[in-house]
Specification:
This protein is an all-alpha fold and 63 residues long. Helices cover 86% and strands 0% of the residues. The two termini are 30 Å apart.
Length: 63
Amino acid sequence: MRLPKLIYEAYPVLYILGGIATMSLVNSTIAFCSGFLLGLSGTIILFLRRNYRAIRQQMYSYY
């Protein structure tokens, strides 16, 4: 199943915003840790996508 591009690109940003909201709005250590992990995962996804696109662009620019 393929997601529309707009939704696919928005997921990591939603993860980051959800993590920030969870860390700041809920007063619990478990919620803080969960929010941190959610925000971290969104950041990692953005980083991996950026690297993959850069590598792919370099590979196809040689042909």
